[in-house]
Amino acid sequence: MEQAKPTIKINDNGSIRVTGDVELVDGEGNKFETGASFSLCRCGASEKKPFCDGTHKKIGFQSAPRAQQP
């Protein structure tokens, strides 16, 4: 059975949601423990970097980028 392709979603005013079979490593190649899906910090204020802890809501982070359509 073929696995679903991993997806990375930029949430409006929030985190980056990663779903699927991916490996997250630091700058030295050490693996972070992750589940089948996880959220990465995009606002820079999380106390659990690189993971999101919801701080973007408290600080009013605003960003809603859109992919360019051909």
Automatic annotation (TrEMBL):
GO terms for molecular function: 2 iron, 2 sulfur cluster binding; metal ion binding. Signal peptide: none annotated. One of its GO terms (cellular component) is cytoplasm. Residues 23-62 form the Iron-binding zinc finger CDGSH type domain. The keyword Chloroplast does not apply. Keywords: 2Fe-2S, Iron, Iron-sulfur, Metal-binding. The keyword Metal-binding applies. It comes from the Bacteria. Coiled coil: none annotated. This is Iron-binding protein. The lineage of its organism: Bacteria, Bacillati, Bacillota, Bacilli, Bacillales.
